[in-house]
């Protein structure tokens, strides 16, 4: 039975979230407000288990770093922690205050991955260190880090601060180690109460006007988890990510800015702060290679070389520009989108005039059976490029560049015709991936061959709807209890749990919902959207992908794109329904 809770702001939702629903016990869910690169985790006894460094593609731990005199089970909220006789709150990015009773111990120097360069104490104590890198692809063996400590109450005694009510502020810096900046930040520190207020103010700004209309207590819990996920995965990282807010897929698992993840995060980020949403987009635009390659992912000091990811920047950008009416942003982004289209149309073009996939990681479908027999003419990757070409034409029109708009529209029309000529089969009534080696159409059925419909193909709406009804909504193929497995249920390569060989993936499901919208299949779209929403709600932990037989979450929990899809479905389906009522 529905509880019909009232519509509330996202800030109120988070502040009302009970502590037992917040688990800061592993790197994926560290306590890390203010767009911080660091996070704190806690053990069952209330000690700080580790300081997590969510930096440069791999999370690393400094543990154990801090403890109190009298540990006990932590009492958590989204603004502060009480752990034994310690109280902790962040007052700024990568900067927190700790208050205690009798003794607070700090032990940064026991970490075997940390090499101290200098350790000096005057008004503040500064540890300048080098920390070993964890990802073997990182060009640097170590990275520089500054740890600054200011005693607010009490005195140093070895590695402890002692007194009746000892307290200290701690700040971290990565890459650029400026003690003056660190000192200025430490000077801002007051006490836990003021830090809690600072965190609440930050949350309010970041969440913008996002409101939630939960209908049950369980839905309220999962919605809170979704908002937490997007908020805590938003990070102001240094280096190539500096001056922007990055949107990590998972703080603990994937602490870097992925191309297509960020585009899907924008589905919900655009309901929050315009700054977060814009930055997720601009990091992709401003870090394009000179020839138009958009990196697979962007770290502080390196990118994944050679490979890209689906050309969805235009798809995300156009929606954001239409929502905000920002024509200046459209004009800035336009040449970057052109360059990215040109990159795909040169570096990945095949003899059929379409897009080749050699590397499954580039498709986002990391272990897809579609590439088991060699490179393919990929319907989905060609679809993304076609969609982006259409976006370039529309944005050019928006900015009064009519000749450019016409040129890109004609290029898109020609590309769309090739998609039909090469990949469409009248016999099966659908599009097919094509094996590059011999040009044969592949039988394997997945959602991928339906995505080109999003790019306006020269096929009648009747044919497109027939293909969707015959295949996408066949319960023995691509629908069933769990809609849209990434490989059809009846395909020999189907595996319900194996990554891209059978599970349901939220981002692909969202694109198929957009397809239903485009084909004016409103009732089917709504029913399917509700079904997807219920699947994510029932599991509750916002996993990366889902078992297509049971709906059980798989991969990383509290994944950004699942949180974004769930929130966007809620806003579109539930909140608007409540407003209409």
Number of helices: 15
Q: Percent of residues in helical segments?
A: 25-40%
Radius of gyration: 25 Å
Oligomeric state of the chains in view? single chain
| Shape descriptor | globular
β-strand amount:
15-25%
Largest sheet: 10 strands, antiparallel
The count of strands amounts to 26
- The chain-level structural class is alpha+beta
Mean pLDDT: 93
Poorly predicted segments:
none
| Straight-line distance between termini | 18 Å
Describe this structure in words.
By secondary structure, the protein is an alpha+beta fold. Helix content is 37%, strand content 20%. The strands form 8 sheets. Strands 5, 6, 7, 8, 9, 10, 11, 12, 13 and 14 form a 10-stranded antiparallel β-sheet that branches. Strands 2-3-4 form a 3-stranded antiparallel β-sheet, with no helix packed on it. Helix 5 runs parallel beside helix 7, helix 6 runs antiparallel to helix 7 and helix 8 runs antiparallel to helix 10. It is globular, with a radius of gyration of 25 Å.
